[in-house]
Each structure stands twice: as structure tokens, then as C-alpha cells.
Amino acid sequence: IDGFFTDGTQTFDEFALIDTDLVIERSEGVTPAYLVLASGALTPGAVYWFQLTAVFAVDDEERRRYDSVASISITVNKAPTSGLVSLDPEIGYTLETLFKMSCLFWTDDIDDFPLVYSFFSFFEVETEVELESEDADIVMSSDLVEYRLLSDSFASSHQAYLAEGSVNRNYTRLGEAEISDRFGATTRSGS
User: 187 near 81, Cβ under 8 Å?
Assistant: First the structure.
């Protein structure tokens, strides 16, 4: 099995998880062989070419050999790009202002449509952490917790009343959207 990046910069052996010089000796039936690639090994948007060469050798006086070649070119899916996430209005009041989060100008290959959108808000949770030492003190730590407002919708905007943001962040609430194509390639962007 041979394969390479179309500009010749990467060979198949660099990203395959199997021995690409596979020899199968079998006199009857079919023996399956699977190509396994490391997750994330292929570059999104890149084109790869794969070629399989099968050789049938007859062990007789004539040492006959029959070769067969099959090849395929694959374009790796890439996530939606070139968009932005907006929040309107930018300033409001807790549980009074209806905020609208919108995903604008996102694009992808035409074959990757339709796009689906998920919307998130984050809030900060403070936790007590006890340090392990002779002079153990309790220290406050904060973590951002994600709250899903809407999941996998064809609508590119969503309206929601939001709870108060953290005092540590000047009462600001963070928002993000996830934009995915029909094959699952995903981009996250914040407002």
C-alpha cells in the first residue's frame, strides 16, 4: 500500500498505523486487510492519494506474476471557516434582557452543507482547595462551567435570557457557538 500527500511532502508510512508492506499468503478465499490511520494524522483540507498494488505470483516453472493496481484520491474534510459570532445587545440585565447570539458568514465546501449550530454560555464556579502542606490553607479556585443553550440546530441564531456573570469577571457572561458541517467537522468561536 502506497500513499502520499499530493505535493509529495508526506509519505504514507509517516501516518499509517499498520505495516504498509503487507504480504498475505493464502491459497483459497479472501483475506481482508484494513488500512488504519492515526486520529488527526491527515491534514484538514489536504488531498491524499492512496495506491494498492496486489501481486499474485504462481510458483511454477515459468514463475508467472500478475500485478493489479487500484488507486484513490481523498480530500480530507475541514471545519467551517470565515465566520463570526455576535451577541446583541452587548450589555443587558440579568434575566431581563433577551440576548441574541448569531453565527454570521460561516462557510464550507458546498458538499458539506447544511451547517448546524450549538450555542453555549459559561459561568464561573468557585471551589475551595486545601493545599497539602504543614501550613495548609484553604484557597478559592474558580472554574468555567459550560452550559448548553441550544444543541445541533439549523438556526444560525438563538435568543436567551442569561443569568448573572461572575463578580470575578465584572459580571460578564461568556458565550460561544459551535458550527459543524454535515460530516461533523467543527469550529468553536466566542462572542
Answer: yes
Residue with C-alpha cell 448569531? 102
Main-chain phi, psi angles of 39, to 5 degrees: -60, 130
C-alpha grid cell for residue 146?
459550560
CB 147 within 8 A of CB 120: yes
Average pLDDT over residues 4-33: 55
> In whole angstroms, what separates CA 27 from the centre of its chain?
42
d(CA 75, CA 129): 48
What pLDDT score was predicted for residue 49?
A: 81
Question: How is residue 103 written as a grid cell?
Answer: 453565527
Give the pLDDT confidence score for residue 89 in this predicted structure.
92
Q: From CA 182, how far away is CA 112, in angstroms rounded?
A: 6
Cβ neighbours of residue 11 closer than 8 Å, sequence gap 6 or more? 3, 4, 5
Q: Find out whether 23 and 33 touch, Cβ atoms under 8 Å.
A: no
pLDDT band of residue 1 (cuts 50, 70, 90) is very low
Rounded CA-CA distance 178/117 in Å is: 6
Torsion of CA 146, 150, 153, 156, to 10 degrees: -90
Q: Between residues 84 and 131, which one has the greater pLDDT?
A: 84
